[in-house]
């Protein structure tokens, strides 16, 4: 094969880990004059200028010795959010986000120090080009989950001292990225270290950058409320298996998807901050104030109430029912409706109430945790059968087949006395829960991971430690790795959970060979590599011993898949109580 030869002025580094570098060098050597943009990026035909372009402007090659892509800068940690306001207050797309950030200004705490980064934030859901109108409906009962998460991420990054670039349209995006006509994007425009976006925003960025988007690939952090499982993410696999989803096939590392709740270990848990957290004085006042014998129903749209009359009739026998619904004519006449009101007014209602009533929809929203934080018990309806993209219109097209056994699985795991799992169609079951709730005092409860401090700690460590640009790294530290075997038909997620641990996909590359496994007393007498399944590494028992199969495609590592005739070899780790994204050695 033709090879690029070093010249007297340019000594090339090892290209291990950069399999396409050699081909790119050869192509650029011949074709750099074909587009004037290459010259504008400093390419002059010499090997060094080409290598610098391919390693620094794009990311096909390793850095030359002595060159640094991004200098480390020290963050000026902020003690309030006022510095954000000028960038938000006059932009219609950020109006709801701005109001939430203003309303929560006092509860944010000063964050830890970190390296100052240039961060681009492009919420595709708020752009006019998305045609979702999510910002317009936010003030009239529309879905708020994505906007809550974006608000709290922006606040967190600002408090941590990073330099934020907020995009709200395709023209904003192209300006930030330096996209002009067909010219390759100029990374120097903002020198982005990280790009937070969502799936719609990712597709917009990829279209705007065309072929040069690859240079940013490892920088993406994609907000994805319900999660993307590895088989839906892998473009070729999804095509082959006919896994249809308008949101899948991005072929990112699955942990680049950031979820609202810790749905699956394959993705990264970003979370949000529960509003409103009580000060010490407010907590004392809440204890001294007698709660009214009332329930508040979780459901802003009257359509959520349809078919729930019998369930609500049972609750009404025990207490007064209040609501914040968009249409009073379509709910029971005994319900006291306050209409669509501000978040602070909802908090007041929760502090007066004893029960927050789930109607089985919407799924996995922030409101259930807000209720618990205000000392209000949550009735969490079971789902019969469990709902997923295979049988639910709401989840249809979502890039996963995760099953929900209740309206709010995260809250379900919290359990009694805070969360009561009920069958809406069984009056005895509902009455059992209501009687128990009314016979005790429910204290305010909020898991640490949904507090300001918890989110600041988590996001700061993820920014500092989580690295998708340089292959398998040293975080989480290998000292946290524990090997667990998953029996037939059991996923690694479940096997680790049964052992009191969590599946850690970052460890898969470290155990994906016979030599490494032998260090953990898992010996393979025979082995092979394959990309035919998402359950590798795994083994079967043969006459000659364990026959191990290792994963040949790293994008197919999965915590959530199982196999009826293979025993999975699972990488697990411990976790900090109420901070599941981090292991004890991770902080």
From TrEMBL:
UniProt-listed InterPro entries: GT18_cat, MGAT5_Glycosyltransferase
Entry keyword set: Glycoprotein, Glycosyltransferase, Golgi apparatus, Membrane, Signal-anchor, Transferase, Transmembrane, Transmembrane helix
Catalyzed chemical reaction(s): N(4)-{beta-D-GlcNAc-(1->2)-[beta-D-GlcNAc-(1->4)]-alpha-D-Man-(1->3)-[beta-D-GlcNAc-(1->2)-alpha-D-Man-(1->6)]-beta-D-Man-(1->4)-beta-D-GlcNAc-(1->4)-beta-D-GlcNAc}-L-asparaginyl-[protein] + UDP-N-acetyl-alpha-D-glucosamine = N(4)-{beta-D-GlcNAc-(1->2)-[beta-D-GlcNAc-(1->4)]-alpha-D-Man-(1->3)-[beta-D-GlcNAc-(1->2)-[beta-D-GlcNAc-(1->6)]-alpha-D-Man-(1->6)]-beta-D-Man-(1->4)-beta-D-GlcNAc-(1->4)-beta-D-GlcNAc}-L-asparaginyl-[protein] + UDP + H(+)
UniProt-annotated location(s): Golgi apparatus membrane
Pfam families: Glyco_transf_18
Keyword Oxidoreductase: no
GO molecular function, one term: alpha-1,6-mannosylglycoprotein 6-beta-N-acetylglucosaminyltransferase activity
Membrane topology: Single-pass type II membrane protein
Protein's name according to its UniProt entry: alpha-1,6-mannosyl-glycoprotein 6-beta-N-acetylglucosaminyltransferase
Lineage: Eukaryota, Metazoa, Chordata, Craniata, Vertebrata
